Amino acid sequence: MPRAPFAPRAPFAFAARLALVAPLALSAAACGGAAPAPESPQPAQNNGSGIAAPATPEAGAMGPSGPRDPSAGKNPVSASGGAASSADAAPSFPPPRPTTLPLAPPNSDDPVDRLLLEGDLAFERGDIAAAAKQYEAARAAAKAPKRAAPALVGLARVRIARANLPTDFGAGKGNKEIAAATKELRRAVQSEPGLGAAQVELGRALLMAGDAPAALESLRRGVALLPNEPESHSALGVALLATGHRSESLPELARAVELDPGSAPRRGNYGTVLLMAGRVKDAIQQYEAQVKLADGDARAHSDLGSALLFENDFTRGVAELKKAISLDPQRATFHTNLGYAYQQQGQVAEAIAEYRQAIQLDDKLASAWINLATALARDPKTRAEARAALEKARAIDSTDPRVKANLEELDALEKDQKKR
């Protein structure tokens, strides 16, 4: 994703470019895996503190394939991609739907189908060994290639899960297990082209292998064959976003939520794309639902808190970010986002403390170094340290335009200081 534009220059001595760590990467559980989150757009206005918005808050992670977290993988939205309906505000939600696409009809008495369904259930609860056993038994019991196709899909799922790779775009490029799984899935599709689960799983594998056109083609076929499965829409939406088709991903993730309104990860995924599209209020509605569905999930609170900062609702935003940290104190991005909130309110000492904590947890987090520099640059006594922090950020990513802009402003500030 392209970097977010800078906020306007502040009428302050040091018009620093801050950065919130991208809110929510799209949720892995809702699409069978996890992928890194893109940076969210920065707030478009300056709050008068003299500092442009810091890097955006961390977003929920979405990804294509891999073992599902039994507690995740369930989501909802309006088919039109609009704001959540009044029903979304209700205190209760339907149970989330499974994220494992079924390989057989649910009420079948056929022995092969029963083995496949047992494999699906085991995979859904994360018991990969049991899933492999059931899928292998189904393959052995099948008499014809077409009948064995679903079992090949299941075995490919297992192979991908055992590869233990991020399910990001290109994350499995050159990996032998991903290549073997892709080959098995192609065989399954060739034997049974009308098997929607095979098309979806092949699309996920191709995405990991870095073949975007083929992945999207297969995933679109999967959606056409499984129009009422939230997971097919979620997988396509994640792939579209990962390959730069953000506007096309919106209706797919919206449909996933509409079909599965009780899924916290799907709510988070949809909220993230809404936020990236600048529809902050709609995003907040989805994140609020996500928190109701997963109150113990630190990411859900971070997502909501980060989105609230875009609305300048610092009271609620800080509360949600503090809740996220209380649930997961070791995540550096949570501390960076809380520091951003403090800095936007003029609580510079508190902001510096959070940035330092973030760096202690992850010294490769460029946004923490940048934001620390913007806070330190306010005081002439700590401007040397501010410059050192910006150099740290430049060493992490020499192409980050925020580093160049802040260094230029720091040069100008120090030049003016010498003239006095």
From TrEMBL:
Keywords: Signal, TPR repeat. TPR repeats lie at residues 196-229, 230-263, 298-331, 332-365. Residues 32-45, 76-91 have a biased composition (Low complexity). Residues 1-30 form the signal peptide. It holds the Pfam family TPR_16. Residues 92-105 have a biased composition (Pro residues). It comes from the Bacteria. Residues 32-113 are annotated as: Disordered. Gene3D superfamilies: Tetratricopeptide repeat domain. Transmembrane segments: none annotated. This is Tetratricopeptide repeat protein. It comes from Pendulispora albinea.
